[in-house]
Amino acid sequence: MRFRPVLTGLIAATAALSVGCASTIAGTPQPGLAPVDVAALKTGAYTPEPSAYDPDITMINELRMVEARRLLGYLVAQTEIDPEISDAGPVDLFVNGDSIVSETTFPETYKAAANENNLLLGVYSSRTNGKLRELKKLIISVLRFPTDAESRRAAEQFDQVTNEPRDRHPIPIPSQSDAKVSSRDDITAIGFVAHGPYVIMVNAGLPTPDRDALATFVGTTIERQKARLDETTPTPLDDVLDLPLDPDSIMWRALPEAPDYSDPFIGDDDFGVYSPQGHLHYERNPAEMSKAFDEAGVDLVARRAGIVYRARDLQGAFQVQTALMQAGKNDEELPVPPGLPDARCLKLDTMMTSRLYDAFCTVVFGRYVAVVLAKANMSGRVGEVLYQRAAAQYAILAKSE
Q1: Which of 79, 104, 105, 307 could lock onto 90 through a cystine, CB 3.0 to 4.6 A?
Q2: Does domain 67-229 have CATH number 1.10.8?
């Protein structure tokens, strides 16, 4: 895993709209795309050419990360359980017992059980309804162990750790008798259950004490998560590299990391190819995006510094762009980037925790729609680097055909 510093200085934004004259571009735009003079686009420090995705998979953790990204596609989205629970929280991928511990995932007390049972990898997703006075939350994690026996032992030990404070009581789940679920106040419950080589963890919360409702909430989540895991077979780690790391060269089409280290995020653990279901965990509006993915025929998502979605056709790409651009009450639409009349940009009122960004642009070319990100400066202004990224990403898509 590679890490690098984040540079926070951004150049002041340019709000002017200037569309270049049409000229021949690499690739063939379909009817409905406005003409773009690719050669005139201002891409800043970026090279406006496709670049190979060649991850450095020389350590076991990098290998496990590939399989963790695939597993994310089988993690139930919170909006499938309760459509109101859509405000994004932390999303994480794990590659061993040590990696599950952080301020936003598992406490230190769970590490020993994970390590003693040889945790291989896992995924974690958290959302709330965004209402502090009527808070609902749902955290779901799936942890993979080498054997069914180790997953069962881990689930028991995780439950024991959870119940070390003696003020907790069990919450029976009639439909999931093998689940170990407990609560302190009948508002929040934490549960663990082994399912094959996996341990499913559910941390659920309701606005007011209601033991029966809490049991139903947790039970429904566990039931759906078990069913989702039954749709897949764990890939033996020795076989992971037999799977394509860049199917149909979709990663080749995505904007690489900034050469000047100005990306808002740190690290590249989430770089890779995702199923649409897996990428829902990174989306701002998962229910709306799920519908758009289905209707637009999205079948593949690439996640580098730029995020590329492959739809059925141009119409589908524009449909996904519209869904991506859904603005919240206090979000602000930004001017169109110079020379990209079909691009759209948004300044978010709240920073996204997954990549520490609060501004993004979407560009469309052919059946692809791509997202590029930036972080506003101290004064709240978005620098021209966002427009440079949009220009570079468009040029890369155009030259990929």
Answers
A1: 104
A2: no
What is the rounded CA–CA span in Å between residue 126 and residue 333? Answer: 27
Q: What is the DSSP string of 94-147?
A: ESSTGGGBSTTSB-GGGHHHHHHTT--EEEEEEEE-S-GGG--EEEEEEEE-SS
Alpha-carbon span 157 to 118, nearest angstrom: 13
The CA distance from 15 to 218, in Å, is 48
In order along its 401 residues, the chain shows pLDDT tens digits of 433 333 233 223 333 323 333 333 344 445 589 999 999 999 999 999 999 998 888 899 999 999 999 999 999 999 999 999 999 999 999 999 999 999 999 999 999 999 999 999 999 999 999 999 999 999 999 999 999 999 999 999 999 999 998 899 999 999 999 999 999 999 999 999 999 999 999 999 999 999 999 999 999 999 999 999 999 999 999 999 999 999 999 999 999 999 999 999 988 999 999 999 999 999 999 999 999 999 999 999 999 999 999 999 999 999 999 999 999 989 999 999 999 999 999 999 998 988 999 999 999 999 999 999 999 887 778 889 999 999 999 999 999 98
Q: How far apart are CA 200 and CA 74, in angstroms?
A: 12
pTM given for the model: 0.90
Residue from 28, 15, 18, 39 nearest 392 by CA: 39
Query: Would you give the DSSP letter of residue 39?
Result: G
- Assess contact for 68 and 122: CB atoms under 8 A: yes
Handedness of CA 320, 322, 326, 327 (dihedral sign): positive
Helices (H), 117-267: 148-162, 211-229
Residue 128 CA to residue 159 CA, distance in Å, equals: 23
Residue 379, Cβ density class (10 Å: 0-12 exposed, 13-18 middle, ≥19 buried): exposed
Q: How many CB atoms lie within 10 A of CB 159?
A: 20
The two three-digit tokens of residue 201, written as one number? 């963890």
Q: How many CB atoms lie within 10 A of CB 239?
A: 9
Written as one string, the DSSP assignment of 371-386 is EEEE---TTSPPPTHH
What is the C-alpha to C-alpha distance for residues 46 and 138, in angstroms, rounded to an integer?
39
